[in-house]
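subagent[fold] <- orchestrator: predict structure for attached chain, return tokens only, no commentary.
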Amino acid sequence: NTTTRVWGDDYTAVATLRVSDGNHSATAGVRFSVANVAPALSFNPVSPGEEGDPLSLVMRVTDPGSDDLTLEWTGGCEGWVSPSVHPNDPALYPDPDPSPDVHPRDITDLQAVPCGDDGAYSWSVTAVDDDGGTTTMGGPFSVSNLPPSLAVSPPDVQVEEGAPVSL
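subagent[fold] -> orchestrator:
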């Protein structure tokens, strides 16, 4: 006979098999380990932005385990939000060790970062699962310069000769 079980978390145990013919029995065990797998990251390339506009960055994170995940974005502009936590099961956060269920993770995380001035910048995101598996990805992006804009207020003014004009 063959038996199969999928573990949702890293785990070490002994699998025990007992066989009996009704009169006699035999028992054997084998120690096994299920290793943690670090989260995987997939990212769509960043389109160049224009100064002052928020730049949207979207990251997809997958993890075959039933792990709580933490994502932290950093980069050359100001305005990155604090690390985000994605619990495996909000009712059981933090996740017990080992996780009691099989719940592979597939999440999407978004950052919208305004870069105030044109230039070349970098971004980085680190995903960490609750068992220490860590994956980091990063790269460059550019922000293009825009011409200044000008508005005169009020647009139409009429005054008498010799009188000051305020605009």
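orchestrator: received. Logging for downstream: The longest strand covers residues 119-129. The beta strands are 11-20, 25-34, 40-43, 49-50, 54-63, 69-75, 84-86, 105-114, 119-129, 134-144.
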